[in-house]
Each structure stands twice: as C-alpha cells, then as structure tokens.
Structures
1.
Amino acid sequence: MIGDIYPLILGILILVSSLISLKLGISVTIVEILLGIITGNIGIIRPEAWMLYIASFGGILLTFLSGIEIDSNLMKEKMKEIVLIGFLSFAAPFVIIFLFVYFIVGWNFLAAILCATALSETSIAIVYSALVEKNLLEYQIGKILIGATFITNLCTAIALSILFIKPNLYTLLFYIISIIVLFLAFKYSHILFNSPILKNKLNEVEIKYIFLLLLILIFFASLGQGQAILPAFILGLLLSKHFKLNSPGYETKKRLKIVAFAFITPIFFIVGGMKVSLSLIMSGIVIFVLIFVLRQLSKFLGVYFISKKYLNSNKQYITLMMSTGLTFGLIATTFGLTTGILDQMTYSILTGVLVLSAILPTITAEKWFPPHTEDITD
C-alpha cells in the first residue's frame, strides 16, 4: 500500500525540481539529483523496479537525443579536437584513479580497474541536458562537447567490454541485432518521416517508432549482458538528418524533447540521486573525498590544456562539462555490485563520487564560466 504513494511523490519531486530550478537559476538536472539524494536518504521514497526501468530508458533516450544533435560536417572538420579531448578525458582519470586505488588505497585489481573505468566517463546525459537548457546545441561548442563526450564514453564502453564482459551467444546476438536495427533504421526510416499521411496527426507514430527501436536495443542488450548506450547514440547519429531544421522530423524532435524532459529523464536523475547512501559515504569519507578530488584533477589535466590549445576562450567551460560523470559510471558501478566485484560501501562511495561530479562541475560551469557567445558561432 505504501508503495502506491511513490508515483505521487515522484510526480511532486519532478514539479518541485522545475520550480526550484526556475527560482534559483540552477540546472533542473542538478536539482532533480539533489532531491533524489535527500528524499532517498530520509526514506520518503525508494527506487522500485518500474522506476529503475524507466530511469534506464531515460538514460538511453537522452543518449539517442544527443546523437541526433551531432553535426557530421563539424565532426569531420573538428575531428582532431573532438578525438583528442574525448580520449584524454578518458585516459587521464583511468590511469590515475587506477594507480591510486590499487597501490595507495589497496583495493584488489578487479575493483581498482572497475573503479577507474567507471570514473573515466563523461556523462552524456548531464552534458546534453545542460546544453539543451542553455540553447548551446545550435553552436559549435555544443556540438564539439557532444562529440567529445561520445568519444570518452566509447573508450569507457570498450574498456568495460574488454576487461569485464564475458561474451556468449546472447552477446553475439545483441551485436547482430544492433547492426540490423541500425542498418534498417538508416535505410528505411525516411519512409515513415516523409509520409504525408502522418503530418499533423495526434498518433505520434514517429515517437512511438523511436521508442520501439530503443526498446529493442535495450532488450537485446540486457539479454547479452551489454549496454544499449552506444547503439542508441549511433542510432541518433544515423537518423539525425531527419531532425534537422526544415526537415520533416524537426517538429517530431521538439515533441520528443517535451516528452523526455517532462517525465522520463527526470526519473533518471532522481533515481540516480536515490542510489547515494550518505551513511555509507560518511563511513568512508576520507577515501570518498580523495577519489573525488583526484578524479576531477585528472579530468582537468586531460582536458584543460588541449582545450586551451584549440578552444582557448571556452576552455574552462569545456573542461568542467567534460568533468561531469553519471550515466555510464552508474552502469559500471551497478555491474560491479551485481557481480560481486564491488561491495556495498565501495559501490556507495563510487556512486557518490559520480553524483557529486555531476553536480559541482555543472554548477561551477554555468555560474562562473559560461561560454563566450561571441566565440561559439558555427
């Protein structure tokens, strides 16, 4: 009976987050995470199976949406900058965090390497949400950030797959199905998006079609013990031409964002906050602080100097946004907990680090280092 009130509480949290965001001028994503932490730790609400699934879908949906914002021409033009920023954003924390927790803290090899993998990512959900709120996706800096974030997460996904995932027939099936879905969607989606029958209809067939494709990827990813984040991003990239300005799917993109940001993605961020156990973090507060500081410093070392060389005027903003963590990191830590590589305390510490890294760099970037608008045109 008590669980029946959770949807109501969740609805209140979603609305209150938006009101607080408007009042304080803080990203709504950050407010959602903070309210998730507060309400989860005082026991007002706890994540249930349906919340966890919607949250998972929300992360995949954000990844897809970020994919459709990729400018392929800009990717080619700025490939060197994007790849360098994205790779160094992964490599620096991966190496430094591993060395610290393995040799200094004394974690076992598997726990140390999983920690390094989880904390090396940049949250595509946080970056995309922040860029949408600040209307930066129309500018070069927004497109470069999305591209660099993809490269970072690609490296994280490869590391996770090589080091931990044990391939089986279902894994192979996931790869095959993903390739088939991506190929068919790229080849034949224009039939749906260009159909005059669907124009100005309330059926929202295009959105339902996108949801179905993502659900197929999620199902087979779960079956094969993989993750649908990268196929979802590539799907968005392949379909991006249908969502450009003056394209048939442009209005669909706007409606899809409304659906996503009104209900689905807030659950992703609130549930992410709920996973933080403050009591367990306090019991290991010294390690928590050291790992967080080291992660942020290593991200700074990996991103700042290369950003200064190629994108000097916005180097602080780019560095801070590339320092955010959450999406893929939560996936990696959850994998570590369920497989026994991480214990509950270690999981809570890493989750806390990820959530804090989603909050502090974003607030700092938006409040003190907003991008210079005169330097971010295409």
Note: The first helix runs from residue 6 to 24.
2.
Amino acid sequence: MNIFMMLEMAADAMGDRVAVVSGDASLTYGELLVAARGAAALAQASGALRLAFLDINGLAAPVALFGAALAGIPYVPINYRLTAPEIAALLERVSPALLICESGEAPAGISRITPADFLARAQAGGGEDLVAPDEDRGIAVELFTSGTTGVPKAAILRHDNLLAYILGSVEFMGADEGDAAIVTVPPYHIAGISAVLSSVYAGRRMVQLPNFEPGAWLDLARRHGISNAFLVPTMLQRIVEHLDAGDGAAALPALRALAYGGGKMPLAVIERAMALFPDVDFTNAYGLTETSSTICLLDPAAHRAAVASDDPAVRRRLGSVGRALPAIELVIRDEDGRPVSPGEAGLVFVRGDQVAGEYHGLGSQTDAQGWFPTRDRGWVDEEGYLFLDGRADDVIVRGGENISPGEIEDVLGGHPAVAECAVVAMPDAEWGEGVAAAVVIAVGAEVSVEELQALVRGRLRSSRVPQAIRFVEALPYNETGKLLRRVIREEFAA
C-alpha cells in the first residue's frame, strides 16, 4: 500500500472539510488532494529521486509529503535549525533531489524551489492520471535522526510501516467535523509526520504553529477551538510556567486530549498540568523515529488512577511511558540478550509491523526474529508498564559497575526544591567514571549540595551518590525536547 491512499480516502469522504490551516491560509481535503497531485507531477518532471523539505510548518509540508508518496520518491524533511555546513552535508547525501526551501545555496544535484512557488505550482493542478506506486516495501520517508551522539543517520520509513501504525491506532473519519489539532512539532520530527498522517485519516483539521511560544500557543488554541494537541515536555512546562506566572487564563473549553512525548516529563509538571486542565485527557506517548512513532501509551485512565492512588506502585506509573500498543511486542533483555524479569532493568527491544529499524546505507538493524534494539534502557512492572532509565549510551560505568542515571534522577527529582535534574558520567581518576548531576532549583526554593547527596545516600547505594552537583538555570534541550546530556558531560569534563 501507499500512504497517498489515506489522502484519497479523506478527500473522497470529506472533500469540503478543512484539512490544514496556516495563518490566514487553508486547504480543504479536496484541495490538498489536488495540490498533492500537482506536487507529484512537479517532482517527477524535475527528475529528482527525493523530495526534500527545508522549512517551518506551512501548507507546503503536507502537500510535499503526499506529493512525494504519489510520485514514488521518498520525502526527506531536514532540520532547518542546523548550521549551514550541517545542512549542506545532509543535502549532499540526498542528491539528486528537488528541495523546497526559502533561500540558500544548493549543492550539485539539488534543484531548489521556494515554498510559495512550490505551493502555487502544485495548486495549479497536474498529475491527475498518476497512480500511487504500490510496490512491496516502498520507501515513504527518510528522516534524519537528531545526531545528538554523532553524525545523523537517515532512518528509512516504508509505506507499510507508517500505514501499520495509522491503521492500527486511528479510526477513519473518527474526528468530528469541528475537531482540530494544533501542530507545534517541526516537520522533520517523526511526531510531525505522524501528526499529518493521523489527522488526515481521522479527518481532523490541522492548525499549524510554526514557532512555539506559550502565549501564542494558548491564543491559537482558543481562537481555533483546538480539541487535540501534542507537546514535547519542555513545551508543556513552558505553558504551565506561563499560566502560573499569571500571563494567561488556563481555560481551553474545546481541548479534550493532550498527548506529550519525546523526552522525560518531570512529575511536578504533569501533575500541575493535570490540575490546570482537569477535564483534559492526558496521554504519554513513547516512540522513536525508527518505530514510525508511538509504541507505548500511558493513557488518560492510567494518568488519573496514578494521581488518585495512595498505592506507591500505582502512583509511580505517572513516571512511566505506559504499556505497549496492541500491535507491538516489547521485551527487556540483559547485556547478554536474555529476557529479564519484571522490575529488572535492561535494554528495551520491540517488534511489530510498524517497526522499521532501518537506516540508509546501513540496512536493517532488526535481528532474525524481527526484534529492534531501541538503545533505551528501562524496566517493566508486573502490569507491563514501561519505565525508562535513559539511553544505553548514558549508562555510567563506575569501577566496572553499570549505573543508570534514571534511578538517581528519580530520587533527586523527588526533593521539593528540585525542578529538574540530569545525571551524567564525569571523568574519575580512580573509578574511571563518576556520577555528576546538574540541578535546576525550583523558584523560591533552596537546597544544598550536601542535602541532595544525603538524599541519594539514604535511598540508594553509596556508589550512586553524585560526587559533583552543579546548580544551573536550565538544562540544555534540543527543539524537540531531547535532553542534551552530551553538553552536560562536556561541562563536567571541563
């Protein structure tokens, strides 16, 4: 199958319904179909083997995604926040391509067109006779990973992977005509791809916010009667802080569902958000680029049960990422590849039809049984709730002992004076690596290094006590909410 099928179904069933809004401009599902066909014809005429997109959210993004699908070439959104040399390096890797971008030099093999020109030519029509390719294992999207630990890899997402996720988790035309989703994640993030696909299949209006700012987000949500939203943890934290500072009213009467993911959510933030929006259903969505988006969900019922419970085992589930989707199998393995028991930490492996686990030039990373190593560490409780301990590369090796940053962060984060914290490895002449922590203190609170060290010493083994704690104004995150531990490690190493 081909993801273009979803747009055809939507346009046939609800062609007059508004599909996407960006500023004062909009497209109905029928108009989006016409533009996607025009974009496919334009891409084919250019002779490009990829359709690359280097711009903020706008009408051109969904047109390009579906246009590439119809043309039978991969859609390649590129991070516009990278430096010019980094962008140039990625463009060389996708040549020959038709590049949608506002300005800048393009390397050999890249034909450039502005978003406005691309959109105008696409809307002019064409491609009416084109039929979406339905070849086995066709590539829909090539998505560069964030590159936080090295050179970005090009993850390959095939039509079958993306369709398996959408068809298994979204009901066709399941949205009411008045439903609207605010799109704040950038187009080069897997959440941006899945936001378009899931909204189109459900028939939900997409309202784009190109640049996130909490006040603007709240204003847009009120003005368009937003019913559904997805935010990375740092975005939700900024909205909560904005409201607590008295800079806006929390009332969003149309908002029914708010999903978050892409990073670790501080417990204080989600608890405060649930108090500010008591009638909203909160969902924690855990997924990866390589898994075509979400593989685990902490659903609204689990959120409310955790907040209301006096049972520590149930209450701590608010810090989990929930349970695997029905179509996903999940297992925790030790360093030797053996499955471990509930409560025991290890490496997270998943498999299912939506799991791609493949990179351009590197091939499939799944084993013979289809299991993909997420490179995340974690554990599951007796009921199957997954708790993440961080990336495998984040493990601190102190004197041959593996120490997970997550367990120490959970203890530090439980102190009322700690707003956020991150635990990393630091060089140690005796043990090889030591434990270090960067801590953000809550507004108006005070705490000493010695007090935090004593807290960890009283809850965990002495080897887990941070030998260095640094108080910082903020932790470093990238624009999609991923904590940049590398930056923190470098600061302690220096």
Note: The mean pLDDT is 93.
